[in-house]
Amino acid sequence: MRERTMIYLDRSQHQALRAEAAREGISMAELLRRLVRSYLQDRRVSAHVPSEAYLKIVALGASGRADVSARHDDYLADALGREHPR
Measuring CA to CA, which residue among 29, 40, 41 is closest to residue 4? Predict the structure, then answer.
């Protein structure tokens, strides 16, 4: 079920959206739904741990710890927890 909403746009925003919708061959409402959907999906993805965080585990093997192969999950969880506390 769809909910109705009203927003106010600057004239330039409105004209740009109308032109983009026309280029896409869709209504302005459909364009706005797609934009909102894309924005919300991007927000969900960005809430996850960034891929660069995983690259930081590369040096764990050089930690001097003898039990890294047995406890790698624990060390990974600790490292990610420090980088991204909840």
Answer: 29
CA torsion, ordered 32, 37, 43, 44, to nearest 10 deg: 170
CA 59 to CA 79: how far, in whole Å? 11
pLDDT per position in the chain (86 positions), as tens? 889 999 999 999 999 999 999 999 999 999 999 999 999 988 776 666 777 877 777 766 566 777 877 888 888 888 888 888 77
pTM: 0.52
